[in-house]
Amino acid sequence: MELNDVDFDENVDEEMSAGGDMKSVKVKEEKEEIPLEALSTGWTTFKEEMGSSQAEKITDIEVDSSHLPLVTNESGDQVLRFYWLDAYEDQYSHPGVVYLFGKVWIESAETHVSCCVTVKNIDRRIFVLPRPTKYLKGEDTGFEVSLVDVYNEFNERVAEKYKIPKFKSKKVTKQYAFEKVEVPVESDYMEIRYSADSPALPSDLSGNTFSHVFGTHVSSLEHLVLETKMKGPSWLDIKCPQISTPPISWCKLEVFVTRPDHISVVNDASLSPPPLVVMALNMRTLPNQKTHQNEIIGIACLVQNSLAMDKPAPKIPFQQHFCGNQN
């Protein structure tokens, strides 16, 4: 028997007969032909399969974005209960705006879907440290400084110079624990809030009635996390959500809020985090002889459609797998 006559691609199923003899049944698997055009240019998916019959059925969920899945919280308010996983901001193109990405529960579909929450109008927040005594042309005048003096100088000199048309201020007490020895451990500050559309102030800014300004370059995302006390991925209640149009992401649901104080952390330990859709990606590269740069020639992916964050790994590691190569 010559090896050239053997078809190694044939599937052979064997079953035992009543007399103990082996009956061989050969089943020829029909192979899907790949068009020649698909092999000549671009990327080709040459292997794509689902998992075993035990894997969950994968369906595409259609969400009616005109009706938000609101729930009633403990205070009796209608809110969007949202589990945030990641956040993004663009300080240059969209100052004062933070995009939160996560999931919400859709009762009609009995599943979680992706959601993007846009938080707008996050103000800059700075802290101005008053001097003990007023300076004039670099010399100490000996006159005691009040917060009214600090406010007047900021309003007349700083706000006008840096084009800050409107701001809010109040007295706060803060503690300092860093390297500047001239800054008191605890002192009264003037907290100032103004729109992120106005420019950030220099970190070394000082004046006749104040010596330091802190928080000049703190990002909007940091302000949001500190104000709402969002300590990592968790459930949030979104008050007064409005539907975002046109869409700005690939999420199933998109909403926005006009104020950051419309977001609050849900303190309910009984709420479990939603399952995740995760993908393991493996790539192979080869150097291009013309450009002398590495190029991706193959990609293989494994997809798990329901990975619980608070439970052990599932017995079925993935439901989908596919490969692709560059021709």
Automatic annotation (TrEMBL):
Region Disordered: which residues? 1-27
Q: Where is the composition biased (Acidic residues)?
A: 1-16
The residue ranges of the DNA-directed DNA polymerase family B exonuclease domain are 212-307
Its domain of life reads Eukaryota
Mind telling me what this protein is named?
Dna subunit polymerase alpha catalytic
Q: Name one GO biological process term.
A: leading strand elongation
Q: Where is the signal peptide?
A: none
Q: Name one GO molecular function term.
A: DNA-directed DNA polymerase activity
What lineage is on file?
Answer: Eukaryota, Metazoa, Spiralia, Lophotrochozoa, Mollusca
User: Pfam families of this UniProt entry?
Assistant: DNA_pol_B_exo1 (PF03104)
State the organism of origin.
Mytilus galloprovincialis
Instruction: State the coiled-coil residue ranges.
Output: none
| A Gene Ontology term for the protein's cellular component | alpha DNA polymerase:primase complex
